[in-house]
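Give me the 3D structure for Hexosyltransferase.
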Amino acid sequence: MGITTTTFYLSQAAPARPHARTYPSPATTTMKPPTPTSYLLLAPLAILLIVFVLPSLHPSPSRAGFPDGLGVLCARRAGGFPDSLSVAPPPADASPPPEPPTQPEPEPEFSLLVGILTMPSRRERRDIVRTAYALQPPPTPRARVDVRFVFCNVTDPVDAALLSLEIKRHGDIVVLSCAENMNDGKTYAYLSAVPRLFASTPYDYVMKTDDDTYLRVAELAKELRGKPREDVYLGYGYAMGGQPMPFMHGMGYVVSWDVASWLGGAGAAEILARNDTHGPEDLMVGKWLNLAGKGRNRYDLKPRMYDLNWDMDNFRPDTVAVHMLKDNRRWAATFRYFNVTAGIQPSDLHHLP
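Predicted structure for Hexosyltransferase (353 residues):
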């Protein structure tokens, strides 16, 4: 089989036709010298090169402080940035300016632990009580007031899991070593355990109250101001069964630290020997103190501590504590009376009556 070869030839130019332009053969094309017209076409390009390109190759005063070439445009758009706005970084060894001296906070006049006896299942009530106390103004005189929710042993795994969330979030839970109860020793377990649980940071006073009591902390602080720090028993007091001294109603009462220490120490054997931890807890506390001659500095705060009546119309402006708030309707009435919910700023996010 033969190999086919393709050959390209350069053809000769055909004879020129009359009135037709002739083109030179590629093999014979030569460069003609530029004409004056060509120089005229290049002149505008040269002028543009001189006016716009050559100045950009040399720094000018207007570009100082903008080495990247972008500062001039930005400055023109913003009205110009004087060089004095350039802030050099401080030297590495420069120390920050000294902070103005702050006045130390004054020491509190006294301290109070408020223990709210409740049950694990009452989570909604604890949320209400926490919020209500958090929104109260700080007490005057200045006092350290700590609020804790008090339980006996938590045996239900669901309650234990949910209560663990409260412990991690709020840190205001105390769980005692006792079976959950109301009148079978829980109050004694609480009062007697406090000196041991808080031995490193003792309080001047210890209060026991319930989760259906709204305590106005600032008003209670005013009552405690100037009171003795020892042998104190304060609350809503009344006589019972010919007792020589009144006992305090279970809605809430305060004892001094030494009385709580006695309950957990020297008085424990005597109280437990008589099996005096079972029964109405407020009556039992009054009985312990009367038999031992303790709590001789007694202060009756009624009528400023009281039960809310059925019609919810016996609120007092000088209230220290109001009791019998057994449902949300009664808590809401209490908040309205004491203006706890006042001052909410208007917003498109909520529409409240």
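The radius of gyration is 45 Å. Let me know if you want a second pass.
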